Sequence to fold (799 residues):
Amino acid sequence: DARPQPLGRRLLSAWYAHRYAPVLELLQGASRAFAEHRRRTAQLTFHDLLSLATALLRRSPGARRGLGLRWRRILVDEFQDTDPLQAELLFLLSSDPADDPPGAGWADLVPRPGALFVVGDPKQSIYRFRRADISLYGRIRGRFESFGRVVRLTANFRSTTPIGAIVAGVFAPREAGGEGRFPAEATDRQAAFAPLVTQTASSSSSGVFRYTIPKEFGKAALSLEWEAEALATWVASRIASGERRPEDFLILTRVRRGLSTFARALEARQLPVLVSGSGVGIEDELRELRLVLEALVDPGNRLTTVAVLEGLFFGLDPESLLGHVEAGGTFDYRVSDRQPPGPVRDALARLGEWWRRSAERPADEIVDEIISSVGLLPFAASGELGGLRAGALAFSMELVRTAAVAEDASLAGALEALALVLDDDDSDVESPLEPGRGGAVRLMNLHKAKGLEAPVVVLAGPRGEPPMGRAMIIERDAHGKSEGYCVVRERSGPFSWNTVAAPRDWEARDEREQSFGRAEEDRLLYVAVTRAGEELVVGCKAEGEKRRGPWSPLEPWLARHAEEIALNPVAPPDRPPLGPSAEVLAGREEDANRTRDRASRPGWAFFTVTQRVRDEADDDPVRVEAEAPALPVLSAWSQSLASASGPGGFSWGNAVHVTLDAALRGLDGGALAGVARMALLENDRPFREGEPIELESLLVLVERLRGSDLWKRALAAEQRLTEHPFVVEQAEGTFLEGVIDLAFREPDGWVIVDYKTAADDRVFELRLPQYERQIALYAEAWTQLTGEEVKEARIWRVG
Fold:
């Protein structure tokens, strides 16, 4: 249209162009500063890595040659999705800098023979918004024709004959009998048509089908709801009949909007479903968690605290909050102990505990604690699309952990990580609890389906189409050099924007870009149709409805050739109960606790003789004295020995026991002195210049004991045991253990001897009832072990 624009429009365009230079300078400065920050803090993005690697190869022939020798063969699949930076990297790696033509751009380079092999289908070039330009593909294909070889691959092993028929009918040029979506020869905007030469035999269910949205559901929301229920009913019936399995179905929509409606309808019929590209998992749970974190970051913000109290985690009603205030309470969780009693104070106390712990522990631990304490994960899993929602929650928590480990373990860092999920329209957090799980109906928007296939593909959502306007345009010349243009806008409402600045001739450039966009829409349609293996099912608008939709270009061919499916939505069955009632679960918990308590009690117990006597004395001191037998106590002669030795104490007693044991086993002279010396040193008795100062006293004590009648009897006995350990079972699961100092057998029975060291006569007399009870227990245990009589049980005060 060569007519001049109205004066007002021309003046406005001039004003936008006048502002464009300073705005662009500001944005470019911010971009450079942010790039430098990423480089300085070692937080490079994937694009940074790609850009820096390409810059290295561009400026360093040595690096380029060395890396080219390292990777001598490069194979690239889906080459139509390659952006210019990636293409430049490939050409730099696969060519030798010595062969570069003077002044050549990267697109003029010649790869080494056999160094570069690419596979691509320009009819599936659908990522122009990611800089994957079909014009670039065409130029590089032309370069391959000059230095290499181009091979056409036409055989299709995915689809059956009916799918090939719709491809030919819709996309072939008009002169070839099609509707002309693709030209016979490629252009800078569109790929050339190539027939789908199918190699797979058709089955009885193969075909192309259509269903129609009734006219009475004219509004978008009603239309979507009816379609979701009708499709879910149809899918469920085919699975129930055994005709198909859930994994046979791939349901595609052009845009993300509405995917969750389809997913809920499928799940309501107990069908497993996997969703991609919808944000369906980003629901109330994450928003409530974010609100709690905001309250913990800013404890002085009472509005946020009240919102948390009324929210999902605490669910307090306004009446409770009002009653709390009327009772003199506040909403400062830092002083929850000063609040009036009630549910509000309990909730504030929990918030206060989280807040105090957040000052001591990293945010990811606090977030995990919050999720666990309120049962957020099972709550998400138990509702509609529970697997997806719980998976999205788990994925988001992983982002928080990653942020805590990598850079920021504060609550503010956790909030920032959650914001990436909640605020980014392109965030793709569908992460089911069972990643990679098969056996489910797949549901996604069209861009996510690239490279996928299914026996049955349903193109759903026939109403509405995405806007064609672009905010950024990149133009490239034949040598790969590019120039970018953008329009700067600010949001003026939920669905509206105001232009701030734009380059000159933006309208002309935008119109040219829209022509590229319309060509890409045709390629998107081609991708949608060719995902199907056996059945292609397309949703259509009602007859006479003039609104354009994403599948509208298919409708004329479908009206002539496709079989109509009459969809009739049937209400889903009642949702089955998740499991036992809360009362039953509480009873099971009590049973489990009782079982655990029983299992945690030991089935056996060991007691030493000393411990048993001490416990009995604590329970009933009188009974201990009553049960102690009247046993001989050899103390009259040993008192003089005790006064002669004098040291006493636990460590002294140990040394005495060791030395007596050695003497009774026959050691004498220097050998016995060596044992006594080591016994004193090992028990940390006092020494001077490396020698125990009590060695002589100990040896004198042992020598005097050797002169006793008891010693002589022990030496003359037919069997003698010293420091002899034992364990006997007193009752089921109860065992008594100890060590008998001396036991010897005479013809008429055993004699049991227990050594005691006590330098103080008064202490010895006080402890004598317990000593007597101990020796009595030794005697009982010995009789139980040997089956023979113990005729004497002796307490021998030895020092």
About this structure: The CA atoms of residues 639 and 761 lie 8 Å apart. The first strand starts at residue 74 and ends at 76. The chain has a mean pLDDT of 85. DSSP finds 27 helices and 23 strands in the chain.
